[in-house]
Amino acid sequence: MELMRDMNQGLRRVQGSAIAMLCATLCIAALAVAPAHAQRLDYAESGTPPDPGLELLQEEPHDIIYFTEKAGGGWARVLPLDFPGRRPPSNPTGTLRFQVLGIEGKEMVAKWPTIEKIDLWEVKLEKEARERIAKGDFVGAYPFLSVLIRDFPNQKGLRELRSNFLWQDAISRAKKGEIAPTLAMLEELRSYAPEFQRSSVVRALSGTADRLMQILVDAGKLDLAQQMLARLETDYQNDRLDAVKKWNQKFYEMAVGKRDEAETARDAEDYRLARKLAREALYLQPDLPGGMTLVRQIHDLYPMVNVGVLQTATVLEPTRIDNWAARRAGRLMYRTLFEIQGAGPEGGEYDFIFGDTEMSPDRMHFDLLIEPNNIKPPLDKIRGFFLADVMAKRAQPSHPDYYAPWAAAVQSIELVGPQQVGFNLRRPHVLPISLLQIPVDGSWFGDKPDSPTGDYRPDETAKNDDVVRYVLRGEPKTPTQPRELVEMRMTSGADGVAKLLQGEVDVLDQLFPADAIRLSKSKNIKVVKYPLPTVHMLVPCSDHPYMSERTFRRALLYGINREDILNGELLEGLRSEGCRVLSGPFPAGIEINDPLGYAYDQKINPRPYEPPLAKLLLAMNANQMEAFAARKKEKRPEMTPIRLAFPADNLSRVACEAISSQWELLGLTVELVELPIGRTFPNPDEDIADIVYVSAAVWEPVIDARRVLGPEGMAKSEDQLVGLGLRRLEEAKNWREIRDRLLDLHAIAHHELPVLPLWQMVDSYAYRRELVGMGTDIVSLYQNASNWRLGQ
């Protein structure tokens, strides 16, 4: 320490050998404080520092002091000097105090006459940026420029440097044919420095916008072109871009052309084409003369509604709980003996389509009262004896229509009169009509089996996977009733949102929760939540030897970060009330103490994400399988890849891709299987999947429990505890027993895992506000389709 003090004193006294003394001092200090490994060169007695290139940005900010030849030469990297405004004095006197990098806490002093120059850190950054811009290395220049903007926003010449960077980069990108990035650079330049080469920048901006507009129009992306044109017109109204004037005229001419074509199609009674062209004309030019009048004329002549869907239906079953599309479109084709209209404090609320019902106070008897005078054809043809015969067949084990829960509930059926059928029950049943959600087809009225009884039928001549048209059967009930409902399959939720905003579709059947939140802010769109949530789960569907093991299924569930997938992937970080991770196969309700959640035990928490526990369970299961095979003197079954199937919609795909990735972290091999359009469950004879992602409408757990968990249900569970829970549920005599036994069944399902519960989703639909008659609290999109009307 005495030697260091002596050398510091010598540095102050001796001017002729200043850098030599400095280097000696630094060397001794370095030996005192530094570990014994190679050091970066932070000072030298001669020469100049090496050029670090891009590695400069990895170094600690520093200035460089160069000493005069008279003082011995050399240089040193020092901590940033504390100059007022970071500007060295013009006529310095006295001494300069500084600290050399790597010698913490050791202050050095040099007389100003010994210093030749000082390179400031920000000047070095600026120099690097300028040199790279001059060479056309904009990627390399950007980090230096970014640091300058962040740390030295008041640096002299920075505004000119940044502007030149944007201008030169735009020119470079334009030469490469990168039109969109070129426009982005020019717009940023115009916004940042309006004074920079104003006429040249405006001219370049207009020319680039013109080229990009042409590209979008040629690609058929008129919506994007329209959006860009509207933005350019607003943002540069004072610059009067030639491109804006040109394309406003072009769009007007295109709109006029489509309007004229729409009128020709209207006169030829090709209303589908006429509507399409008229809407496109109005979208291109909202204030097009005669455009809105033409659209209204076509609506009056042939009311038609376009519906955006994530899945078109290939089967039409209005009571299907695992197939959203089949349930939605099935409502158009078929009526159901009892149709669910919503949820009440004691289960679902149902309408008897042929009239009214009466229940005895002891719930041991109920009557179906047919009211033909209040029923529209063909439903008015129903007779009591036929209805009684249908109900009887459902209670006969030898008949194809046999339904075990109904057979267990009903004791006898009596025909009270031509329009009244009575049912005597074996025991009090809280909701017997829920057992009678039976599709009604034309065979009930002397027509062919499977013939429609709803207002619409599919147009087989215009049917494909992406567009399905449902045309009105018979005469319209009102002049404004849609003659046609067109289901258009969207490639994704975002695609559906874009088409709804453009007016290409009038309704979106199902929204991502995040899209629903964003769309709700649009003044032209109405977003409504369905009153009943859907339950998402994974259902084993093959004889995979490991999938049948409860320990293995537990490992799979512990290996899924359900909270992360739901909140991050599906909700995109936005909060949506009612969307939550579940611990069982029944809905939890949307609000606290929601009667919808009467089957869900809130005390049972969902299993957390625990990959170490999942791996342990997988190892335990392998050992169990090994021991079992040894007892049977057989070889342990091979662990084949887990085939995870999902419906062909974007939400299911996103969820299953995330699940697959997390299972692979456990060491499992997973194969994703996308089901054909319209299918939500693999056919058993195909053996294409081991487990399938299902979104189920478990709206009435008292009857849906068997449809989900029973031997004939989705899970096809043969578990004795599950079977006992289902039988005890069906023997319940009042709502208290129903709730208690459903909670027991929830606990059994949580323990046995016949299905792997994932989460509950609250789905939404959206429609353009000019579509009226949607109704409120509808559980199915087409519940009031006959009342839809496109407003004026």
UniProtKB/TrEMBL annotation:
Keywords of the record: Signal
Solute-binding protein family domain sequence ranges: 396-676
InterPro entries given in the database record: SBP_5 (IPR039424), SBP_5_dom (IPR000914)
Keyword Signal appears in the UniProt entry: yes
Pfam families per the UniProt record, alphabetical: SBP_bac_5
SUPFAM superfamilies tied to this protein: Periplasmic binding protein-like II (SSF53850)
GO MF annotation list: peptide transmembrane transporter activity
Keyword check for Signal: yes
Signal peptide bounds: 1-38
Gene3D superfamilies for this protein: Dipeptide-binding Protein, Domain 1, Dipeptide-binding Protein, Domain 3, Periplasmic binding protein-like II
GO biological process: peptide transport
PANTHER family in alphabetical order: ABC TRANSPORTER SUBSTRATE-BINDING PROTEIN (PTHR30290:SF83), PERIPLASMIC BINDING COMPONENT OF ABC TRANSPORTER (PTHR30290)
Protein name in UniProt: Extracellular solute-binding protein
Originating species: Rubripirellula reticaptiva
